[in-house]
Specification:
The protein is α+β, with helices and mostly antiparallel strands. The protein has 2 helices and 9 strands.
Length: 134
């Protein structure tokens, strides 16, 4: 389910032209928006959430839930849409979540989510674009 990557920016300058300052900080520099500040924290609508960097569909709105953590939370993500890696920044051991298409930093996944997956994908709103159902 990978998307065409031939149109993706190749340099930091090209990414800076494509993204807002906040999107760049989150997606390209692994930044984090302040809790409860993001556009999609309390967002409820049918549709899907895509990567703000490349447009690849990442999460279905049916998997979004209110975890109370301050960031949009999802209970599942198709393996082919995301990649994960160990993040030891800030003196912690966490699992970072990245867009499988463009490599953009999305957030982190934790093993304290609802059943049946038990996962909580804690994702920055700045890394997402919502696509509503028509």
């Amino acid at each position: 389910m990978s998307q065409d990557t031939s149109e993706l920016p190749e340099t930091d300058d090209e990414w800076r032209e494509r993204l807002s300052d906040e999107e760049y900080e989150v997606l390209r520099e692994a930044g984090t928006e302040a809790p409860f500040s993001g556009e999609y924290v309390d967002h409820e609508a049918d549709g899907s959430y895509a990567c703000a960097g490349c447009g690849a569909t990442l999460f279905d709105a049916d998997t979004k839930y209110d975890s109370g953590c301050g960031w949009p939370s999802f209970s599942d993500a198709p393996d082919e849409r995301i990649e994960t890696r160990l993040d030891t920044s800030h003196g912690m051991r966490r699992t970072e979540v990245l867009c499988a298409n463009c490599g953009g930093h999305l957030g982190h996944v934790f093993e304290d989510g609802p059943e049946p997956t038990g996962q909580r994908f804690c994702i920055n709103s700045a890394a997402l674009d919502f696509k509503g159902e028509d």
